[in-house]
Amino acid sequence: MKKLLIIVSLFMTSILGFANVKPLDVDVTEGAKLPNFELRDFQGKYTKSKKLFGDGKPTLFIFAAEWCPYCQRELSAVQKFYEENKDNINVVVVFTRRKTNLSATKKYVEDSKFTFPVYYDATNTLMTAFKVKTVPYNLIIQNSRIQKDLGGSKNYEELKEAFYLNY
User: Fold this and answer.
1) Domains along the chain?
2) Is the peptide bond prior to 136 cis by the omega test (within 30 degrees of 0)?
3) Which residue, 17, 89, 107, 158, has most beta carbons within 10 Å?
4) Strand 118-121 vs strand 90-96: parallel, antiparallel, or unpaired?
């Protein structure tokens, strides 16, 4: 009986030790390196952040919500920006689950005919890790490093200016 208790105790200790995973925390200051994490698309498929942010191209990284009027206005500009620059600039939009659900977000993206890559923060992990208080929230990331915090809502001209595309 004593041996069984010792074995069970060791087993539980090892399981609890592995369960104590540190939550994702991102330093969003310019020049900070991103930790590795995964983004989940609308179909539940996960993509590693390194794949999205480590390919050498600058990335416009946006947190948004389908119910947010500022996001709606910005995402229309983002679509135009994406269509014109997708060969040279990545665009990644993460939709929050705050005040909504996946079905409503999917419908909004489909109805809006957005073609840029979209992801869904089903557990609010990314919003918390990036310390996002309001949406939209925009960052420029390159080679898995924060290049610039663009803050809130941007129009088409401001997006071009942020990436030095004044042509």
Assistant:
1) 32-165 (3.40.30.10)
2) yes
3) 89
4) parallel
In DSSP terms, which residues pair with 61 in a beta bridge?
A: 92, 139
Spatial contact of 65 and 96, defined as CB atoms under 8 Å apart: yes
pLDDT in tens, 67-112: 999 999 999 999 999 999 999 999 999 999 999 999 999 999 999 9
Helix (H) or strand (E) holding 54: none
| Mean pLDDT per 10-residue interval, the chain, length 167 residues | 57 50 88 96 96 94 98 98 97 96 97 98 96 97 96 96 83
Q: 131: alpha, beta or left, given left = phi > 0 and alpha = psi -120 to 50? A: left
CA distance 123 to 131: 14
- Burial of 24 by CB count in 10 Å (0-12 exposed, 13-18 middle, 19+ buried)? middle
Cβ atoms of 149 and 132 closer than 8 Å: no
**Distance separating alpha carbons of residues 43 and 23, to the nearest angstrom:** 24
- The reported pTM is 0.85
136 exposure class (CB count in 10 Å sphere: 0-12, 13-18, 19+): buried
CA distance 7 to 104: 49
Per the CB < 8 A criterion, the answer to whether 140 and 148 are in contact is yes
